Amino acid sequence: MKYIIFKNRYLIFISLFVLLCSCNAQNKKKSKTDITKSEIRLTDGGYRIFLNGESFYIKGAGLADNGNLEALKNHGANACRTWSTDNGKEILDQAQELGMKVMMGVWVGLERHGFDYNNEKAVKEQLESIRKRVMELKDHPALMIWGIGNEMNHQSKNPKVWEAVNDISKMIHEVDPHHLTTTPLAGIDKRNVDLIANRAPDLDFLSIQLYAPIDVLPQIIARSSYEGPLLITEWGATGYWEVGKTQWGAPLENNSSVKADLYRSRYQNSIISQSQVMGSFVFLWGQKQERTPTWFGMFMADGNETESVDVMHYVWNGKWPENRTPRLHDFTLEGQRAVNNIKLKAGKAYTAQVEVSDPDNDKLIFRWEIMKESGSTKSGGDAEYIPDTVKGLFPDNTNENTKFLAPSESGAYRLFIYVEDGNNHTAHANIPFWVED
C-alpha cells in the first residue's frame, strides 16, 4: 500500500514537473516569437524595412511628451519615434495595444551641452547606463529600431563622438540582435557620411532631419555620396533659422495653412518618391515652445489639431478626415503683413483682420493674443521658456476684425490669431511688431 501511495505521488510529481517545464518552454517560445525582428532589404522599389519578414514602410511621427498616440493611429500612422527611453515602457505598451511600432530613441550626451568625448570615464559610464536601458526594453514586441542620439553632428567638433556612437551600436547588437540601429543627423553631407563610415560602421543605416532643404532632398543625397538606406526622422514646417526676419531679428513664421501646404508637398515630392527612403517621422506630433508656441507643433497646447494633421491624414490614407481645420487666407495689422517691419506707438489703438474659411462651414471662434517676442538663442530643439502674454489689450477678442492697444512698454512683440471650429481644430497665424515710445 505504501509503495502504491509513493508511486502515485511520484507520478503526480513527475506530471507536474513535465507540465511546468512545458509551460516554461511555451513562455520562452512565445517571448521569442513576439519579438519584432527588423531587417533591411533592397527590393524592386528600393530599400525597405522588413518586420518579421513583412515589408513595413514607416508612416510615423515624432511623439512629443504631450503627443496623443491614439490620435496618431487614428489618423493613419503605423509608427512613432522618441528621443529618449524616458517613459519608454509605457510608450511601447500603448503602441503594442494600438498595433504600432516604435523607433526608440537613446539619449546620448551632446558636446553643445558640455559632454566631453575625450573623457574616457564619462564615455564608459554613459555606455553602461545605456546598456541598462536597452536591456529593459529590447524584447518588447512594439520595438522596431534603436535611434542612437539626436543630431550628434550639430555643433559637434570632436570626431570621437562617432566612435562612442559605434560602441553603443555594437553593444546594442550584442545584447539585442533582433533590432536595427541608426543615428539621426542634422542634414547630410559628404564629410559626415565619410566620418560615420570610418568611425561608426556598426550602424545599420543613417537617418536625416531636414526642414526647408527637404524640398531638394534628391540633390542633397546625391551630393553626400551616401547610397545606402535612409529614414527621414524629422521633417515638417520651415525652421525659424530658414526664414526671413524683421529689422529687429524676429523670424517670420508661416501661418498654419501655408505650413499644411508645405507638409503635403514635401511628403509627396521629396519623401515617398525616393527609393533610398524607407519612410519618415513627421515633426512634431504634439506641441512645444520653439521661438513661438506654434512653430513646429502640429497640435495646440489644449490638444486641438492644426491643418497639418489634416494633411498627414490625407497622405497616409488617401482621403481627408471627416471634419477639417479652418483655412487661413490672409492676416493683416493696420493693412500690413509681417514682412513690412510693422512698428507701433506705445498705448495707441490699432486694428487687425484675418480672412479665414472653413471646409465644413462650421461656426468659427476667434481668439486674439499679444505675446512678448522670444529672446531665446537656443538651437537643436533645446527647451525654451514661454514668453509672457500681455493682458488687457483687447476690448473685444471674439471677431475676425479686432481693435487693440499697443503694449505700454517698448520692445518686440507678436500678435497671434487663433481660429477654432468647435470640433477640436485650430488655425493660427502671427505677426511680429515693434513698439516705440
UniProtKB/TrEMBL annotation:
Task: Give this protein's Gene Ontology molecular function annotations.
Answer: hydrolase activity
Is Hydrolase included in the keywords of this UniProt record? yes
Q: Where is the signal peptide?
A: 1-25
**Superkingdom:** Bacteria
Q: Where is the Glycoside hydrolase family 2 catalytic domain?
A: 69-238
The protein's matches in InterPro entries, at most eight in alphabetical order, are given as: GH, GH2_Domain-Containing, Glyco_hydro_2_cat
Which UniProt key words apply to this protein? Hydrolase, Signal
Full protein name: Glycoside hydrolase family 2 TIM barrel-domain containing protein
**Organism of this sequence:** Algibacter aquimarinus
Upper lineage is: Bacteria, Pseudomonadati, Bacteroidota, Flavobacteriia, Flavobacteriales
